[in-house]
Amino acid sequence: MFRAEFESAKNFKKVVDTLATLLDEVTLKIDEDGIKAIAMDPSHVALVSLNIPRIAFDSYDIDEEKEIGIDLEIAKKIFNRAKAKDKLILELDEEKNKLNIIFENTGKRKFSISLLEGVSTATKVPEIEYVNYVMIKGDAFKEALKDAKLFSDFVTLMIDEEKFVVYAKSEINETESIFEKDSSAVLSFECNENAKSSFNLEYLEDMVKGVGSGDVLKIYLGNDMPLKMEYSLAGAELLFFLAPRIEE
Fold first, then answer.
1. What letters, b where the CB count within 10 A reaches 16 and e where it falls short, cover 207-235?
2. Distance between CA atoms of residues 211 and 227, nearest Å
3. Which residues of 98-136 are buried (b: 16+ CB within 10 A; e: fewer)?
4. How far apart (Å, rounded) are the C-alpha atoms in residues 11 and 32?
């Protein structure tokens, strides 16, 4: 038995949309502490870790630990039907091997999706030490990525003791968004060694798709190292690793 209620289906939709931009399917591990998932994207360029703690739900009941495989494309289509004031109810129907997704408002709308088999993999979160990080407002970072997209499919992130920079160039044009460590967009900053790495811009955009104006990103950066990014979204804790582009 598993049943959970979430105050806003629209807010939960942000989490589903973010996962669905990078993953086709995912195995959710459900236990007394909440819902967790770790998965690589199909190209093995990005890793996604999800943790929705029990406390994020309005009610949460489970009898024993579960693992369920979800087709995220189908889940995304369902959550696109969520209305602004809908409450979300998740119910596991073990007899039919389905997850019920219920939107409750003036009435109830119920969607039952078949669970996938054999989705789980032995993916683990990498243990990488970083000596640099920046905590930056999500909307500021998203705007910097939009600027970079004017000229390139790749973006270079740089950090030194004074600033964090988002840089991109074409053959003849270039752009950079400079965030001084004491700027209004930066909430916390630590740089112990100058560093820069380049990344696929589309992946970065996907990673922050659900981020809004009130959300804060924590970005860890090293020289030609995977980028690590973490933030909270609608009560969920999201963590990403993105492989760098190694330029010859």
1. bbbbbeeebbbbbbbbeebbbbbbbebbb
2. 17
3. bbebbbeeeeeeebebebbeebbeeeeeeeeebebbbbb
4. 22
HSE toward the beta carbon, residue 147, CA cutoff 13 A:
17
Q: What is the pLDDT of residues 185-226, one digit of tens each?
A: 999 999 999 999 999 999 999 999 889 888 999 999 999 899
Task: Calculate the CA dihedral of residues 59, 63, 65, 69 and round it to 10 degrees.
Answer: -70
Consecutive H or E run containing 202: helix 201-207
User: What's the pTM value of the predicted model, to 2 decimals?
Assistant: 0.92
**Region of poorest pLDDT, from 89-103, 110-124, 154-168:** 110-124
Helices 72-79 and 9-22, interaxial angle, to 10°?
A: 150
Q: Cβ atoms within 10 A of the Cβ of 187, count? A: 13
